[in-house]
Amino acid sequence: MSIGENIRRLRKQKNMTQKELGERLGGISQQQIGQWENGNKNPKIETLFKISQALNVSVGDLDPTYGLMITDRDKATYLADILKEYLEKKSKENASEDIISATTITLNKVQSYIEATDALVSIDKEKQELLNRMNNLKEEIQKEEEEIQKEEHEIGQMILSILRHLNPKGQDKVLGYAIDLIKIPEYQSKELTIK
């Protein structure tokens, strides 16, 4: 089952609506939860933890691959500790080279698994950080665009206000000046193309 399917299944088991879950998550919209449940988007790992708390389940219940990976990594770490102790003990006992070699090979494989798991978790965190930065940049760009639109609207309103104080002959004169100014490169905006 996907993360979204698990969120839907567990939410319904708790007799909770998407809206109620969103409220428990601090105001996340019903549409956002719908996108997760439909598989259009996946929640960030931090959000996954919050969802697990809101639904009173483990993160592994929502994302089995995450839970298995962390559980297996913990088991591998425990196994590596046991193998290190065993290797130390057998080295002190002057055990056969075959036992020490086999134990060393097994320990190396377990440590490689731990390193690979750590790398995957790290990559996931880096991906989340990049996505967060990208979302922050999108928000900044959107705010800047909104500010530019607001300024353009204010300028337009100011020009209209000025034109309202003029008679038609004065309005034609201002329009003529504006057309003349548009032809001068130092007064042109970057977006202007003169035909």
Task: Describe the protein.
It is a single chain. With 195 residues, this protein is mainly alpha-helical. The protein has eight helices and no strands. The longest helix is centred in the last third of the chain and has 68 residues. The protein is elongated and about 110 Å long. The chain starts with a helix and ends in a 13-residue tail after the last helix. The model has no long low-confidence stretch (mean pLDDT 86).
Largest sheet: none
Annotation field: number of helices: 8
Helix content: over 70%
Envelope shape: elongated
> Mean pLDDT, rounded to whole units?
86
CA-atom Rg in angstroms: 32 Å
In percent terms, what proportion of residues is strand?
Answer: under 5%
Number of strands: 0
Order of helices and strands: HHHHHHHH
- Between the first and last Cα atoms, what is the distance in angstroms? 59 Å
Which stretches of 5+ consecutive residues score pLDDT under 50? Answer: none
Helix/strand-derived category reads mainly alpha
Short description:
With 195 residues, the chain is mostly helical. It contains eight helices and no strands.
Which keywords apply here?
195 residues; 78% helix
SSE blueprint:
Blueprint: H1 3-13, H2 18-24, H3 30-37, H4 45-55, H5 59-62, H6 64-92, H7 97-164, H8 168-182
Helix pairs in contact: 2-3, 6-7
